[in-house]
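dumping these here so i dont lose them again. two proteins, back to back, each one seq then structure tokens. dont judge the mess
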Amino acid sequence: MSKEKQEKHKFTVKLLKEKKIARDAVKEAKCEELKGETKEKCEKSEGSFIFYKRNSDESNFGKKPWWIDYFALDKTKFKRNFVESLLVFVTVKDKEKERIFAYTFGVARYWLREECIESDFGYKVALNTIDPTKIKSVDARSLEGNAKDKRVVFSKGMDIEEYDCNKFLDFIHRISGKVKEQYKHLFDSVAGSESLMITATKSKDELIALSKELLERFESDDYKNDDSLKEINMTYSVADIEVTERLDEELGKLLKKRDYSTMSFSDVKILDPDIFEYYLFNGKKYYDMEEIFDAWRDMHGSVDFSSADVLGKELRKTITVYTNDDKELDSWKVKQCLNADNIKFDDNEYMFLRKKWYKVDRDFLSYVEKEVKEYEINDEWIRNIFVDYDSEKYQKKGQGPFGEQEYNIDCCNANSEQLVLFDRKMVQSENHGKIEICDVYCKSTKTFFHIKKGEKTALMSHLWIQGLTSAFCLNAEDKRYVSKFKECTKLSSFPSQSEIKICYAIISHKKALATLSNFSLYAAIGKFKEAGFKKEQVKYFFINEIKAKKN
């Protein structure tokens, strides 16, 4: 083996979309900078060619980049033998088609047009080659509650199972670590997002063979056979500009047709009910996001959506949040609040949330919906206790934005022998901070009811967590928790874990959970199982909402 093959190098690789050619992929501004010396044939790699840029600032000259000798470039063409960045295109045959890879060095990765690049190439190759027990870092966008980006770095290679994430709401978009034994002949370590970063001992003559292997890994779904990896790519953000533009068009078509069946508004942040008072939209006060959505929808009766500018204007309208002393708390654009589920495009399913598009694995979504549905109940005794929720009655100013507390009070007063009101009765637990035991407790069935109005993803996540936290305190026999429970129920004994039931109640006229809410409830159910709760102990149901009549 030659010295060249033994030396390790770091490569950053991108894959062009089908039918895209190298010239189309390079940004115009960069081509202008490269004129005169844009193509440099790679001597022994047929089907490859190079773009490069000289370092024009002599003060930045330093160590000669390794890739000059690696590609055996003509040193006489470069001032003092230094080159700042390099872009190498490698063409391979794939079943009668040609696919082009871009190997980038220095800042050359920024020379490529995003719309020409496969957006999940690096991530997919990484998933198919990485050893799940030797993960180095994970980048994810969490959509549980408030959307946020996070990176988890392990000091040593760790098992992916040790990454404490919600696999259904943490959308992983980059992963790095050591590769499995069967792929070490290709490269030692891998990091993948849009680009693929690898450390390998390949000579320039082996780049075409390496590219063919990478293409095979990209087109494979082997990672789905690994229990620890198969679920982390079921829902992920869409970075492909062409796809997002087409999805924006699909969303625009629904709006232009005034088809709002899959759409809703939700808070960008979870609002504290003790501080929040009302929303201001289009000069009017509202106490519920659904009311604003209805008003926004009704405004479109005479709007001509044929112009993209008109649609954009509607999505840029502002919703302002106010406190109970009329101070501005926050403000959001309509597009930040708009959610859209079940958008079909190219035989795939997508959802729009917080200005971003997410792709959902259809088979997995069907599986989750089926699993969650098994926990839904519609028992007559529950319907007799939790009667229809009259929006006109409960959503009045002075009764809070949702009227949940007034509804809970009425239900408890009508069934005083069975029900105990816990709504907003907080207790300082030993390990979980200040929590609410539940909203309503049923003494005869030993059921803890957690009740929320609406279908908003953030609120639903909060509801599931509320029930989980309360159950964990009960399981741990938290002394303060037990004391508060006995005080409110006037019971001398406290039910054991095997006796109790946790029941979520969602006040909704739709009687259906949004995609993300299905995912988050599925994850919560998994945590209940881990804590030892049986299937019959965790349930949810819908309280029928009678919508207020429009004036």
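---- next one ----
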Amino acid sequence: MHRLKNIFILLSFLFISNYVFVNLSKAENLSLLFYNLENFSMGTDMPPQSVIDKYLSDEDKIKLDHKDYKAEKIAEVINGSVEKGPDIITLAEIHNTKSLEFLISKLNKNKHSKVYDLHYSYVSHSENASNSQNLALIYKSNIGLKVLKIEEHFVEVNNSELNRPILQSTFEYNKEVFHIFTLHLPSPSHPTKEREVVIKSLKNILTNLKKQEKNPKIIITGDFNTVKQEEGKVLKALNLNKNIVDMRSYADKKTSGTIFYKPNESWSNFDKFLVSSNLLTAKNSDLNSEISIKKESFKVITQEGKDASVKGKHVLVPNSSSFYPKKGQELKETGPSDHFPILMKLKVGSIINNKCLSLFL
């Protein structure tokens, strides 16, 4: 009888140990990328003829004899930003659904796709805007991401509907729920108060969200169009300074910014990830799970193929005749946008809380 009891205890311990191992192995990373595409629509932004003549081989010139040069360059930058490509991509300055579908086709047919088996699906984007100032969301449809909500919040400035709404998307992954808000604030040439109006609208949305959900996990991203001198004033409009953290504080200090503004001859960090502070220490003891930001994962993508598994590394240069005065030494070094994309990672998965762990020690 005593021997049977010992066997039972041993089997129970092995079962529990196996259960612990399975729980620990469920933790996974989700990569998030934001990219302002600089007025992207199908068949736009071929390189200047002078650049083509100077830098391109005859073979490369033949490759340019079609209308998807910029889309292919964008796909290369996005797919090369992280191994297997980002899991969630938010975009600014994309023209319409047709342009978005065209870009998705390039992401899926990219030269790395056979290795990474990318399957992107777009969810929603605003087509209420004029020109190419729309927002978009793309996510991998084959990794278990569940979309709970997509909503566009329209903002009025001076009694007219602003053509840059706030795009809210809510996901569930590994039983964890998180919210992403994508913005594209009015240009720096517009009065500061216009950007403050959008931020205050976001604050109202977040206030209502907190009434519906206890301690929501929040990620705010986009092009804030705020020069350095204005950043504090615009973000103060959120009135959530202690609860919202700018991931820029964890960035590589060697990276000067995400865009170079030629009139002022200075770098700015227009593009941001702001996260709720509970994402930096978040734990849910009831579910024995967690979702948190990997602080060291925040990057401004200044180099295509920065990940070791991607070939063809080269430094990107933001390309815009009006914003950036310098071109790459080779055409391939010139980026497809006047902005650099930004990237960060979420760690989502099961954990063992202290009380549970103490039972096995």
